[in-house]
Amino acid sequence: MPESGDSDSDGSLDDDLGTVNPMNCKVAGRTIACCHDMFANIAKVINVMLLAKEEDDSKNSNLSESDNEAMQLHHQDYLSKIYDKTLACYKHLYGVILHLIPGIKALIGNRGSQGAQLKRVTKKINHTINEARSNDTGKLRDNIASYVTPDLSVAVISPAIPSGSSHSQLGVNHPVLPGYLCPIDSAKAFQDNPEGAYDTQEHCIQCFPHIINLCVQHILNKYTQADFSDAPSTWINNQGIVINKAEYVKAVQGDPVCLGRDMVSTMHGSDQCHNGFQLMIENGNNAEVFTDQEDKAMKLPSCQLLLDVRTHWDSTYTMINCLCGLCQVCNTP
């Protein structure tokens, strides 16, 4: 079945979307990319689910036996090429789409007369998904060296990960790496039979930013329970400030990340807080009350605090960095 929504020949992304709110398309695209599947093709999801529905309907239709059988064979032939887990993912995404974009259901139901509008909607959602994926991986690209072995020629695993541009021995093509990439429920099957038990089409391999995000979330969930028994009683941080162990441990156990998140959430909770925070920055800059590390007057950026997003691997760092940059405003009585 042809997959609509990918061609650029049907006008710009700002064309009439019928009953669909363009902002809903953006929200849905970012939600799907960040929380569900960053490689989702919305047009294909809709097409597959329509085929599945038509197959179910054909079983209870009044068509002649020959026509009904021909339709079922066509549907079964197409759907048989889709793995069960993939089809389950499509069903889940289809439900998400209908939930996030209420107006799209009418377009799908009237796709005969409103097919062009449906195509523009799916195109807009796919465009947003692609943008979100590009932004997420783009942020990771500059920091990738911090997360991998410095020298890929060193045999951290055997055989070593080859250098160069060839993908013939990378990822699922490497004899060892698939064991690390495959889902945990398939790990034993892969170890028992690496050649036959692991199907890269059937199993969903997590993208690297997602894996990093899982690691970050584990750290954030457990950092308040960190063991400081081997830490010295005092140390000097990278800004030359002496840190007292007892005070530091007490602060960590108080979950400063959670406190910061609560502060940002409160600040975004009402227009009054939001506007008041902005006014404090402007007044402070005009009165030159903000100072740098050398106690010289400085101007703070006129911006708002940022709230982290659980599905964005680096957003907690961005939130903390923003809080630190505007801490003089936050500490103003």
Task: Name its key features.
2 strands, 4 domains, DUF6698, 14 helices, two-stranded antiparallel ribbon, 333 residues, mainly alpha, disordered N terminus
Molecular structure report:
The protein is mainly alpha-helical. It has four domains: 22-141, no CATH class; 169-205, no CATH class; 207-254, no CATH class; 255-330, no CATH class. Helices cover 54% and strands 2% of the residues. A two-stranded antiparallel ribbon has the order 1-2. Strand 1 (234-236) and strand 2 form a beta hairpin. Residues 1-11 have low confidence and may be disordered. InterPro entries: DUF6698.
Which class best fits the helix and strand makeup?
Answer: mainly alpha
Q: Please outline the major beta sheet.
A: 2 strands, antiparallel
Residue share in β-strands:
under 5%
The count of DSSP E runs of length 2 or more, i.e. the number of strands, is: 2
Please bin the fraction of helical residues: 40-55%
What's the SSE pattern? HHHHHHHHHEEHHHHH
- What is the gyration radius calculated from CA atoms? 26 Å
Number of helices: 14
Overall number of domains? 4
Distance between the termini: 63 Å
> Globular, elongated, flat, extended or rod-shaped: what is the shape?
flat
Strand order of the largest sheet: 1-2
**Quaternary:** single chain
pLDDT below 50 for ≥5 consecutive residues: which ranges? 1-11
Mean pLDDT: 77
Pfam families: DUF6698 (PF20414)
InterPro entries: DUF6698 (IPR046521)
